[in-house]
Design a protein that fits this description.
Shape: elongated
Oligomer: single chain
Number of helices: 9
């Protein structure tokens, strides 16, 4: 799903299901980190949808600075979801997450997605090695204000 958001294509479930196992695996394994890789991924996916499904690909707007790439700011939608679910989400934890993990939490926080998996996903992600870092950050924040 992350790769689809990165390249600006909405892939529908019925389209995915029509792809061969090999085509699906290629999409999963295809790199999508650089602008060139994203452009190639997008082109290949558009061509695959056209060839296999005889449909035109649906486009999505690509965020120029996606929230999941910023480890310094927890998006409001994620904080609101954490509060609603009664869990604490410290900045140090957000910083320790990979961009893919942050992407997952953002998607699970959106009302149009199944957010019952928010807490299990958060519990599955690795925690900072010690809670000392979190305590230091809280103390620094209190001292600065």
């Amino acid at each position: 799903r992350l790769k689809l958001d990165q390249c600006g294509i909405k892939l529908k479930l019925h389209q995915w299901l029509r792809f061969s196992r090999e085509a699906r695996q290629n999409l999963i394994e295809h790199p999508c980190e650089t602008a060139a890789e994203r452009a190639t991924y997008r082109r290949d996916l558009i061509n695959l949808i056209a060839a296999v499904c005889q449909e035109q690909a649906s486009e999505l707007a690509v965020e120029p600075t996606p929230a999941w790439e910023d480890a310094t700011v927890i998006p409001a939608v994620v904080l609101e979801q954490a509060i609603a679910k009664g869990v604490s989400l410290e900045p140090v934890l957000w910083q320790c997450l990979t961009p893919l993990q942050r992407f997952a939490l953002i998607k699970l926080s959106c009302s149009r997605h199944e957010n019952s998996n928010f807490v299990p996903a958060l519990q599955e992600f690795p925690k900072p090695k010690t809670q000392v870092a979190a305590a230091i950050m809280r103390a620094q924040a209190r001292h600065a204000s």
